[in-house]
Write a structure and sequence with these properties.
alpha+beta, 10-stranded mixed sheet, two-stranded antiparallel sheet, 12 helices
């Protein structure tokens, strides 16, 4: 088996809904990331064996294999194929798994794992034709009604159920949301995102004919405080605890990672930054649906022969505060190792792009702190999760 390494991981700055990236087509958004990733590493793009792209709402501007369209829109070689996949919020982390596993098996020498989601231009749930709440007839599959006796499946409701199961209060959730903004604001102020963010040229207006360079995440609120958090009303009528302040933001963005066989990277004069240690994918109860990071973390650790104490940094996607808080109660990780640069509550959660976005953030955090092992865990709609352990390569 060959060793797969991460040579680079990058992302766009993340734009708020109807924010700086709203006028940028998702194909062009991802295409710009792919073009810059290749150029940044002085790589012959024709040497890439495959491009694997995560995207959740693959319809409209994100339809017809958005990964292939992005590669071609970037002016990159027609000879390089691409595929787009959907494992819900973990889509680009799954793309990372498939890219690394292809290299480890010998099927690839060089692969790109990436993700994109323009939640402004292609609203969440567009693939099933709804933009409201709760779920409509299009999701009420008969087998689901019979098996679980539920009228619909909803992530926010699942997050609320998790909070109550683990005895979490509204204040617990709000304090975690505040923590995310504070850590992300501190990381940005210290320039800790600079290495992972690629600038994006964006229009200044729909008809202005002018552009500007977009370089910083828009969702971070440096002035966030607990009083503001507690004043927010629940996000939906049926909820008591989940609000816009303790859940991830609707966001636009793209991200990508360059994965190679170690010997190939060395032959090309590129410096591997991390290697892959283990992978895990799990399924869980589709009603609460967001508990998956707990068994996925345990499975990834078991496969690696590691313990919680061996991991220097954890990145658990902040889809909702209750997901990370419940995970921490079960796993027991020290808070000074968890989401140390903030997470999706502050930065945003561009669904298909989140996995490789988190990879970039974790890799840079490990390097900044001199850590060795990092673990990523992401919950997913439908009751799934994936997890990945990487090891920083010290130089």
């Amino acid at each position: 088996m060959f060793e797969a390494v991460i040579v680079d991981a990058v992302r766009t700055p993340l734009g708020r809904r109807k924010g700086s990236l709203a006028l940028t087509h998702p194909v062009d958004l991802l295409g710009g990331v792919l073009r810059q990733l290749v150029g940044k590493n002085s790589l012959d793009p024709a040497s890439v064996d495959d491009v694997i792209v995560g995207c959740v709402d693959q319809v409209g501007e994100q339809g017809a294999n958005v990964g292939r369209n992005a590669w071609l829109s970037a002016g990159l070689p027609e000879s390089v194929p691409a595929v787009s996949l959907d494992r819900q919020c973990g889509s680009s982390l799954q793309a990372l798994h498939f890219a690394a596993q292809g290299i480890m098996s010998g099927a690839y020498d060089i692969a790109v794992a990436a993700g994109v989601e323009s939640m402004t231009r292609v609203p969440m749930l567009s693939t099933i034709g709804i933009q409201g709440h709760p779920m409509t007839e299009s999701l009420k599959h008969r087998y689901q009604l019979q098996r679980w006796n539920r009228e619909f499946f909803d992530q926010a409701l699942g997050a609320e159920m998790i909070a109550k199961e683990w005895g979490l209060t509204r204040e617990d959730l709000d304090r975690f949301g505040l923590r995310s903004h504070q850590l992300a604001a501190a990381a940005r102020a210290q320039g800790l995102f600079a290495k992972e963010i690629l600038p994006v040229e964006v229009p200044t207006g729909p008809d202005s004919g002018k552009t500007r360079i977009f370089t910083e995440d828009e969702g971070i609120r440096p002035d966030a405080n607990l009083e503001k958090m507690t004043s927010l009303r629940p996000a939906f009528p049926d909820l008591e605890l989940v609000t816009a302040g303790n859940a991830s933001q609707i966001t636009d963005g793209a991200s990508a990672a360059l994965i190679m066989r170690k010997e190939v990277a060395e032959r090309l004069g590129l410096t591997p930054r991390a290697r892959f240690v283990s992978f895990a994918v799990v399924g869980v109860d589709p009603i609460t649906m967001l508990k998956g990071p707990i068994p996925a973390t345990k499975k990834a650790l078991d496969r690696a022969g590691l313990t919680v104490a061996d991991i220097d940094l954890f990145e658990v996607n902040e889809a909702f505060a209750s997901v990370v808080l419940a995970w921490q109660k079960e796993i027991g990780a020290s808070w000074d190792k968890v989401n140390v640069h903030g997470g999706a509550i502050a930065l945003g959660h561009p669904l298909g792009a989140t996995g490789t976005r988190i990879t970039a953030t974790l890799l840079n955090a490990l390097e900044a702190r001199g850590g060795r092992y990092g673990l990523i865990a992401i919950c997913e709609g439908g009751g799934m999760a994936n997890a990945t352990i990487i090891e920083r390569i010290a130089h």
